[in-house]
Amino acid sequence: MLDFRKPKASTHHWNPIKAVVDALKEDDESKASEAAWNIANMIVYQKERTGDPVWATGAESVIAALILYIAIESKKDSQKHMASVFQLLVEYGVVKKREIGDGMMEEYVPLLELIESLERGHLAKLAFATAGMAPEKMRGSFFASVAADLRLFADPSIAYMTSFQDHDLKQPGEKKTATFLIIPDEVKTRHFLATLYIDQTYFELVNLANSRPEGRIAIRTSCLLDEFGNMPRISDFDTKITVSRSRGVRYNIVVQGLDQIKEKYGKLANTITGNCRVWLYLLTGDNETAEVISKKLGTYTVATDGYSATTRTKDFSASYSQNLSKRELLTPDEVMRFPDFEAIVIRQRQYATRVPTPDISKYPIKFIPIERGDLEKKDIRVDVFDPFKAQWEGELEAIEQAAKTNDLEEITETEEFEETMDITNEPIDVAEQKESYMDII
C-alpha cells in the first residue's frame, strides 16, 4: 500500500528511478537511458502541453540527464532517488558568482560545469544535449519548468516514501497481488505520483509479457482506475488501452461522465472509450453521456396507432391506421432517470442487459484500520547526493586509506595534501609537513 495522503505512514516504498539503477547494474546502458527518458516523458506530460514543443523537449532533456547523472555518479544506492534529482537542480542549476582575480567576478552555473566535465559519451551528457544547445535564457526557462514539475519531491515525506523500493512492480503479473494506492482528493498535486506509479507498473508488465513466449503475462492484471476523470493525464493512454488487453493487462475506468475523459484527453477520448469492451452504467448527470448510452442500447420497433376524423355539415368521415416505427430502447431522458438498484451492462457483440444491483448496505463490512502510529513517528530524513561533497569524501577516503598503510608518498599526491602545502608561501620542510599531516589524520 502506497499512501499519498500520509506518506510517512505508507506501508511500502517506491523509487521511480529504480528501473534506471537496475539497468545500470546489469551494464545495460540502452535500457537505462530508455527508462530515464520514459520517466522524463511521464513527468513532463502529466498535464497537456500546448505551444512550441521545444519547451517540453527541453524539459525532458533536463530531467533525463539529471536522473542518469544521479544514477551513474552517486556511489551510494541510498542517494539514487528523485529527491537527489530535485536537490541537484535547485542547488546547482542557478547562476552563481566567483572571483577570477583582481577583484573581478564572473557568473557561472555549477550544473552546466558538472555536465561539461563528464567524459565524452556519458549518458547524462548525451541526454542533456538538447537542453545544452539551447540559448542561455531558454535553458534557464527549462530549469525553472523542471523545478516546478519536480517540486513535489521537496516534501520530506514524499522524498522518504520514494527514496527506496521494497516491492517488484511486475509482481502482479507473476503471482496474485493487490496493490492499493491511497490518493487524496483534497491534494491534487499528489495525483501525479499515482499516475507515474501506474505508468511504470504498466511498462514493467509489458516487459514481462514480452519476455514470455506467448507474449502475455501469466496472471491477468486489472488496474481499477477509480475517479479516472480526476486523475492527471496518463501518457499515451490511448495506445496502452488499445494493446494492453492482448498482454493480459486490463483497465477498469470509473468516471462520472464521458466529459471528464474529453477534458483530459481531448480528441483521444474517442479512442479510449472505443476500446472499452464492457460498459457498466449506473447513473449520470451529463447529457452527452446519456445520449451515448442511449445510442449504444440501440433501437426497437414499435407499432403506432393513428386515428383521424373529418366532420362537414352533411358528411362525416373517419380513418384508422397502424404503422411501425423505430424508437430508442431508452431515450437520453430515460437514461438519466434510471432507477436505483439496477444497472445496464453493454458488451461488444452482445445485446445490452439490464441487471439488478445489490444494496451493499445490507452487507455491512467491518473495516479494521492498520495501526500505523509508529510509522508516522519514524525518522524520514533522506540521504541526498551532492556531487561536490561526494568528490571531497572520495579524496578524504583515499587519504585515510593511505594513512592506514602509512604510505606517505601516496598522501603527498592527493589534492588535500597539496592544499595544505599551499597554506603558506614560506619554505617548509616537506618531511616535517608529512608527519604533521599524519598526526592530523
General description of the model:
- The chain is an alpha/beta fold and about 450 residues long.
- Among the domains are: about 170-275, no CATH class; about 385-440, no CATH class.
- The protein contains 20 helices and eleven strands.
- The chain has helices at about 20-25, 30-45, 55-75, 80-90, 110-115, 125, 130, 135-150, 155-160, 190-210, 235-245, 260-265, 270-275, 285-295, 330-335, 375, 385-405, 410, 415-420, 430-440; strands at about 1-5, 95-100, 105-110, 180, 220-225, 250-255, 280, 300-310, 315-330, 340-345, 355.
- A three-stranded antiparallel beta sheet has the order 7-10-11, covered by helices on one side. Strands 1-4 form a two-stranded parallel sheet.
- Strand 10 and strand 11 (about 355) form a beta hairpin.
- The longest helix is centred in the first third of the chain and has 20 residues, at about 55-75.
- The radius of gyration is 32 Å and the shape is elongated.
- Residues about 420-430 and about 435-440 have low confidence and may be disordered.
- Belongs to the VirD4/TraG family.
- It is found in: Cell membrane.
- One of its GO terms (cellular component) is plasma membrane.
- It is a multi-pass membrane protein.
- It holds the Pfam family T4SS-DNA_transf.
The order of strands across the largest sheet is 7-10-11
Number of helices: 20
Shape category? elongated
Helix/strand/pairing class, anyone?
alpha/beta
Strand content: 5-15%
Number of strands: 11
Low-pLDDT residue intervals, each spanning 5 or more residues: 420-431, 436-441
Largest sheet descriptor: 3 strands, antiparallel
> What is the CA–CA distance across the termini?
47 Å
Rounded average pLDDT: 85
Our Rg estimate from Cα atoms comes to 32 Å
**Helical amount among residues, as a percent range?**
40-55%
